[in-house]
Design brief:
This protein is 23% helix and 35% strand. It is built from 4 helices and 8 strands. A hairpin with a 5-residue loop joins strand 3 and strand 4. The protein is globular and about 40 Å long. The N terminus is likely disordered.
Length: 149
């Protein structure tokens, strides 16, 4: 398993995946603590089940998928703190999702040197919630945007 540490952010590439393979079905499991003290990302052929059972954490699962002749990065985020009736909560979710997407893109930057067309692939993230008004699928740009920030 290839690991590296970026501040409070750890990344593990789970074999048989490598920094360059696979592209189809490459899966990301990102767990961010709600107090933002630590984050863990697993990259591989499947979602990292051990990370999926974390409590009080935001979780993003994402995957590269071919769609209509191009690739998309498609994912679902489960916010760590369930939304109440607070209308301001939706404003807090957007930056959390953007930060999570940025972490995934930056951690996997070696993939883009090997497969450069992914730099221009659209990113779509679905927010999951028990409250219907917070459920949404949103466009979060392209990987190139996150690498130039």
């Amino acid at each position: 398993m290839e690991k590296f540490q970026l501040d409070e952010f750890s990344v593990a590439i789970l074999p048989p995946a490598t920094a360059y393979h696979p592209v189809d079905g490459r899966k990301y499991t990102l767990i961010m603590s709600t107090d933002e003290t630590s984050s863990h990302l697993a990259i591989g052929y499947k979602y990292e089940v051990a990370l999926l059972h974390s409590e009080n954490k935001s979780m993003l699962k994402a995957e590269w998928k071919p769609r209509l002749g191009e690739y998309i990065l498609s994912g679902k985020i489960h916010p760590g703190i369930e939304q109440s009736g607070d209308s301001n909560r939706s404003h807090h979710i957007q930056p959390e999702v953007a930060k999570a997407v940025s972490m995934i893109v930056k951690a996997d930057k070696d993939l883009y040197s090997h497969v450069p067309w992914l730099l221009y692939a659209p990113i779509y993230i679905e927010t999951e919630s028990n409250i219907h008004k917070y459920k949404a699928i949103q466009f979060f740009g392209i990987p190139k945007q996150y690498l130039t920030l």
